[in-house]
């Protein structure tokens, strides 16, 4: 395509006139009566307009809604991280897309409807209304000719690239690793903690690649709590000790499981652990009681996990029934332990003569999918999909499910009607 | 440090995008600023018609499935929320040592992030929800009268 210069020798700028428009319409054999009244003449941007700081960002409906509401979006990413874009709730992967078409960005350009004084006609379709429509159309065609107006429009910039976004799962690993550096295990051990790697809520939120809502969720997953202005996670043994003391109050006070008192729990632990730790833990581990307003009940899954974690130290393995027995014994009365609570903490290995439970913590596995697969198959030869899921799901994306990941990185075989996954090599 | 993308709930107008197949080029290497490109018409059905030089293009008005936001990059000089200086000078080796080789490379990220205090900001200037797309090949206009076109 060529932008034709009408007078190539003229140094002064050419400005389109209504006469030019009339002439070109005639040359193009367009019927003026079939055109709407406004012609818009397009120009390249002026020299004084700087447009290289403009970018096009493709939006989905969620982002559009946020922008329309005037909310702020964030680009996040460190030196060695791929950048992500966060709204308040979601996280997006951002990629530059190059196209061979040109996108001309034109502020204030009028679309069809805005250039016509009468409503636009709909294209003739063979539906029942066609004849009615035609008669309406015919009547407007006889309208008196409305004078043509000419408006000048400047293109602001021409793009051959835009940024597209794909929603992704929040990337929590960095959060976990940063919190790992300063696990809290009581005031007496604080002297060992490197103060420089203690982070405040805002510092972590700024650096972790996820939205604010997801960040909150991540903190809950890591069972992180805030005290002295820093976000901390607790050493497992320490957490277990405090939780056991808190749970002990249930039988001590003969509370029902859904009659736990917050105030009493906190005052009972005064002097044993710092108050922010106790209140923080209490709020993480309990939910408001449904039966008794103002009272709370502990979440069985969380209690079961911290108890299991305490028994199932890294590297250990237990006979199945033996483990279940000691697990159940360590739980408060009325709470039960189920295999599903071990998700991501340990696995059931039934390959040997004795089925046993062994520790396999998700957070201790390699972050690279290949390495992790190798480690997993080293720990256990064959896996079902459900068994592998907790260890693989952090690699999934909306388009890449656990089974597709396994199809790519493992070999599947069926034994006695059960599908297993084994190492590829 | 996150880079902010600011939006104004009121000030974001609707801008348009005209999509052309290929590129606009001029014969000579002249300065294109303020130069005339072409005329845009609509027929009574709202179909856009673009005449560029002696070429005519018939297009279509299309709602963008995924609208575009026009972001403008700006560098503000006022120091925004300055972070704790202790963070800026934190020990990188410590992070590496504790995280171990197999873990995510935490390396400079945090330290660098906090050192280079970003002052870059983006503002959403406008949102484009509709475009005019000219997909077909341009057709030549042949004038009856022999005039220089």
UniProtKB/TrEMBL annotation, chain A:
InterPro entries: Dcc1 (IPR019128). It comes from the Eukaryota. One of its GO terms (cellular component) is chromatin. Residues 116-138 have a biased composition (Polar residues). Residues 116-145 are annotated as: Disordered. Keywords: DNA replication. One of its GO terms (biological process) is DNA replication. It holds the Pfam family Dcc1. This is Sister chromatid cohesion protein DCC1. It comes from Drosophila pseudoobscura pseudoobscura. The gene is LOC4804597.
UniProtKB/TrEMBL annotation, chain B:
Keywords: Cell cycle, DNA replication, DNA-binding, Nucleus. It is found in: Nucleus. Transmembrane segments: none annotated. GO terms for cellular component: Ctf18 RFC-like complex. One of its GO terms (biological process) is DNA replication. InterPro entries: Ctf8 (IPR018607). It comes from the Eukaryota. One of its GO terms (molecular function) is DNA binding. Belongs to the CTF8 family. This is Chromosome transmission fidelity protein 8 homolog. The gene is LOC6900690.
